[in-house]
Automatic annotation (TrEMBL), chains A, B, C, D, E, F:
Record's keyword terms, sorted: Magnesium, Metal-binding
Residues involved in Mg(2+) binding: 139
Protein name: Putative 4-hydroxy-4-methyl-2-oxoglutarate aldolase
Cofactor: Mg(2+); a divalent metal cation
Catalytic activity: oxaloacetate + H(+) = pyruvate + CO2; 4-hydroxy-4-methyl-2-oxoglutarate = 2 pyruvate
Parts forming coiled coils: none
Function: Catalyzes the aldol cleavage of 4-hydroxy-4-methyl-2-oxoglutarate (HMG) into 2 molecules of pyruvate. Also contains a secondary oxaloacetate (OAA) decarboxylase activity due to the common pyruvate enolate transition state formed following C-C bond cleavage in the retro-aldol and decarboxylation reactions.
SUPFAM superfamilies to which the protein is assigned, alphabetical: RraA-like
InterPro entries, A to Z: RraA/RraA-like (IPR005493), RraA/RraA-like_sf (IPR036704)
Protein family per UniProt: Belongs to the class II aldolase/RraA-like family.
Record-linked NCBIfam families: PRK08245.1
Gene3D superfamilies linked: Ribonuclease E inhibitor RraA/RraA-like
Organism (species): Leucobacter chromiisoli
Residue numbers binding substrate: 116-119, 138
Length: 254, 254, 254, 254, 254, 254
């Protein structure tokens, strides 16, 4: 990690993701990731109830930079306090590393916004890969126009300090009932968001992509009229066929 | 039913739908169907909370072929078991008749997928008319691309055997709190899915289409500035007007 | 209010909105409105859980004309009763003033429709600005085609009298847990619907637009690479910059 | 109704209940009432989710005196406003007739209290028969000690004006999704609260008590070892047996 | 199983439970059972959200006899139909074996009753060990008086055929999201209901009781002031101590 | 704080509560506390949805010692890990100061237990004042027998490490949507749990007790037949009466 900038490594956490793995993860579904992780014994890595801001946003891929909120208290949280430069919510926007994903533990709160369009614009400028909250965002039409891949439960337009107080950066958090340790890698598509433990990311990306490539073979066979029995999920026999097809250069017809 | 193929009739259930009735049902709204059935005394035939996979899928019409799940148990359900050729989930995909709709009693479970993209592709190839679950599907972006009309609560990307065990085909089931007997005919649009008891399908299709045609007359009148009072819902007087308009060849102006 | 038509003022309530204020409110987000109202001490003016019928409908702006439902009772509510010309649901459709928004207290009920496509068509013809319910509508595909801005929890296609009885027009109501007094002004976008107390509408429109214009400045600065610290939320210093930029004619570069 | 006091009749609504009918309704279950009303075509007369304050409170019986809340607004609702003598919440406590039940449409709100212990004490002193809300009460330990039969969703201890504004007395309301017209008669036990349309109360009390008396016969037979088949629900034959048993003076043995 | 009566074995399912195992299971908590089953790899065997009818009912222990409901349909389900002797709901009450537990898949429905007091009285007379539903019961005050251990979500007093149709006996079912195969053994206390796969019941009872007995030792140590560290959960060292204590005759002091 | 033991002060947080204030808080309702705090501008200090374990437990009073959980992950959380002496869940049980309340941020999780009976027994022995979780406990019958005042959403009997991982002690947390800073003082009764910011505890205890004492006067007046108007909430005039009554030695009659 010799060439990493300061922004890419904080508190001993590595927020970088090698380009090859990122490319692989951009090609796989969150459900493929979930299947591979199930093979490793992980049963709770998809965030239930989180939906993309709109149907056309691109795939979410990146390591998690976390922000934890607790409920607001009227003597501590106000619009005035919110404007201070040491407000952790705003610091998170300035410090989330390029290529990382801002992951917000909003304790499921929809009474205040986890982010608005100005913050999203700043994340886009800074090269952040996306934002995920188990609460919601405000200005969602404008955020959608930035193209930043975002996941939320539903829109939460009220001012953040009405209900939420930012309390910590880069602690392990829960988001939508799933554990997120800083540096874990998130993959999001229409199905939602999967969390890959950081130690396993290279291995999982490899295996998920292999599953996707087999599915391309299976889809082609299905289109030709073949039953899913003996084809999907793969059998030893169908894997041999797949390998032959790959060896033959993945021809359209065979 | 002499000319039915084996696939169209199982366990004494008729899964065919005559072309004329199908065409009618493709022109009516699920809400029109609900209204007609209310006139027959049925108050609980729309499946609450089920939404189309996306806004552009075509109308869902077809007889119900049912699949019932119960919760999974770790000693019975595994990815290995899932791959077996006698797994009822996979058999349902292979046996749901052409023109029918696969209706899944997932006991509302979002912890596992009621179907994925490979299964959806196979249904499309086999000419199945759509799929409905009171749980959710995985790979929903890919399923949406197949064009198969699908209804779910929300995406459920986790592997099926984590939480769900297929236990029976073509039993009467509940789906989203509505009774579905095999062979009942489903009609789905943006409002959701209506279930027509199989004995009533011809009659209901006829009456729902008549309502839609009257609504075309009413819409034209409303566009010309007429009040809904005395026009919608129809009165005896407005029905006379409608009949005259129909007799006149449904002119744009009169 | 000398030139108001009867339809624009009922029961002493003014349902008109001056054109200048309307134009301002069409340019601001509901979240901007919420922020301004928070400054006035209002913490509960966004209707949680209400979503636009589709993503492409135009901004909702207009004074509230209210309709209150209570649960139906079988001896009072029937399709026959529903067709009567003194049915308050239908009268609301005929009397909601041009430029106003029909706001429905459906006590959160999804078991019957708060409105269907024929009613929506009539509202469009009459120049009504939109419809909001804390229940749902039926025929939502057809309503979406009318272009009428509509907000609901989710589709509710069953016939209204199965579960809902219209009991009063233009009473103060609750809608989705927010107080709505007739004449209050609603502003709706992708984030949902905000309610502005009628006495404050001119003032709030002014302040919300000012916030939007500052955000245009801030967005431009963010696009140029500036941190949100010291820029958003605005500081006294950044406001000076903004004023200078405005005085300079809002140049693209400075 | 010649001898009624002013308090017993308001706005043309009769809040009295003859002693004989009251005694009958104190002996029947809310589920018996529901069954009789189902025979009259009423399917939605039990308030789902409302529970007695504690297990030992006595049966709730009495005509409904209604109070409707809407959500609070910060410029209208405050502790100061709450103390005013024209606050409708407090007036309801003073005017709810003796023998009647205070029924509160709290729009399901748990963010403020529908009643506290001082109000409950006053209701007890005034001879009010009970209180029902689709929100909740505060000081529930103290209310329970007064013995006043009360039903709520769950405790709601926050100050009323934080979230609730009393807007009207003795309008038809919805409470927990059930229509309540002033003067309708409520019957509550451990199963919850049933609402009897006022026109039917004598008839329903009679029929429900008859059902309870038959059940006493059936219970005795069951205790002696008889199957419920042919016994419960009653058959023509078992009704003859019952009549004979009644004619014989309801002997312990026969 | 030579001496079993017909009532104790149906469709090849054994509904008996040997007296020794039953006694053990009456002494353990459902949470102890859950812990033991977790050691066998079972993570989903407690039924979430089901509560005992009251706090004083005795421990529930017995093999599952299942009843599956689907939603009612107005042309099939009526009070008249309900009274027929071939109604499966009523047959279940007559055929559920002595010592077994009636487990109802009510598809979570609270709109109709899974059982009432007459049915409960009959179960008591027939020696049935309890009743469990993922819906609710009616006449719960009266059922509580019978002493039959019962678990439900909440009271559901409406007549069964309004919303529920009994469709099958002794099929594998889901109840509150947990798989129940006929003959599985249920254990219920204040924490809720645990389901033991029938093959494991002897083994689980043994291990759960061993855990309870160790807890008695641990409770005694804790009462004497010892830390839970090194004591609970048990360590190899603390198990030696426990064994010595048992060998010494479980003295009050040592 | 010179005489405090190590256990009473951790990380600079004071967990002691002077005896006089504790006695006052044992005499007031959580709703009284909420009212006083509303006067200080606090609107969100009651924990919604948390209920006492049973109706007979004593009042909960004490400073908060916090434990934060995040969701479990299969590679980190196991029964083996759970038994380690550095498990923070178990350390919390050993270190929560005497007189304090263990407050658990369980992120609302009911899939694992926030505490069981052995842990509760240890807390009792150590003089801890109670336990509060926004999840649930296991072995609740046994915990109830210890007499420890406990609040939860509902029972959660599954083993903790199935779903929960203890991540930190004495951080500021959210519990049931309310902010809890270590040292804040909790007051719980049948209405639920109120949180008093630690700086305000003396003042709030004083004012809440004053309110309770006035209510004793008001209750006496109500019992004598007086209206709540002019009496409750207190007016300047009624406060004079109250003061006179206090000055007269709070006589039964006056």
């Amino acid at each position: 990690m010799s060439a990493k900038t300061a922004a890419e490594s904080r508190d001993g956490v590595c927020f970088s993701l090698d380009a090859e793995t990122r490319v692989k993860l951009e090609r796989v579904g969150s459900a493929n990731v979930a299947n591979v992780l199930l093979g490793h014994g992980f049963r709770n890595i998809m965030m239930p109830g989180l939906k993309p801001l709109n149907g056309s946003q691109r795939q979410l891929v990146g390591p998690a930079y976390t922000l934890r909120f607790i409920p607001a208290r009227e003597d501590i949280d106000s619009m005035g306090d919110y404007s201070r430069d040491d407000n952790l919510h705003r610091i998170a926007i300035e410090q989330c590393p390029s290529g990382a994903v801002l992951v917000v533990d909003a304790f499921g709160c929809l009474g205040g916004a986890s982010m608005g369009d100005m913050m999203a614009a700043r994340l886009v400028h800074r090269g952040v890969a996306g934002a995920v909250t188990d609460g919601g965002f405000r200005d969602i039409d404008a955020i959608a126009q930035t193209g930043l891949p975002c996941y939320q439960r539903e829109a939460a337009p009220a001012a953040t300090p009405i209900r939420m107080h930012p309390i910590a950066l880069n602690e392990p958090i829960g988001c939508a009932g799933v554990a997120v340790y800083p540096g874990d890698v998130l993959v999001g598509d229409g199905d939602g968001v999967a969390v890959i433990p950081r130690e396993l990311v290279t291995e999982v990306a490899e295996a998920a992509l292999a599953a996707v490539e087999y599915e391309q073979f299976a889809a082609r066979e299905i289109a030709r009229g073949r039953s899913i029995l003996g084809l999907f999920p793969a059998t030893p026999e169908s894997r041999v066929e797949y390998d032959e097809w790959v060896a033959a250069g993945r021809p359209e017809q065979h």
